UniProtKB/TrEMBL annotation:
Keywords annotated in UniProt: Oxidoreductase
Keyword check for S-adenosyl-L-methionine: no
EC class (word): oxidoreductase
EC assignment: 1.-.-.-
Keyword Disulfide bond: no
Family annotation (Pfam families): Flavin_Reduct (PF01613)
InterPro entries noted in UniProt: Flavin_Rdtase-like_dom, NADH-dep_flavin_reductase, Split_barrel_FMN-bd
Limits of the Flavin reductase like domain: 22-165
The protein, known as: Flavin reductase family protein
Amino acid sequence: MSISSSPKVAPVVDARHFREALSQFATGVTIITTRLADGSFLGLTASSFNSVSLNPPLVLWSLNQAAKSMPVFSGNSHYVINILAADQAELAMKFARPSDDRFAGVDFTLSPTGLPILSGVAAWFECHNRSRYPEGDHVIFVGEVECCDVRAQAPLVFHGGRFLSE
């Protein structure tokens, strides 16, 4: 029997190397939407989404603590997580870039609580903002799903720093 030594591993404290390693994990792409106090809408692209529990139905996503939208998402009672379809990379980019109105020219309908559900998405979840957990430089949002729908289709995937559709 032969025992080989483990490969040298870069320390996790090297943020660039850590980020590069994380980029090798393929994730789905979401746009989280909510409403501002003035009635306008806010949305942002996020790839940090995961299921937590079936009973009760819980999902999570995370947001950088320094994000300008943090006070809105922390204070609002509800948000919608839109799971993007393979043909929606341009939409993901639109909601990832700074803009005065990310919803300009975007088709959507309203959820039961009046939040944007983007047209053409593979699935969506309307969530009650159940809890938040500050961890490192992000806040983990746990949402209790109040309603959802699915239009099964190929997903938009983020891997290696880029969007993939197949």
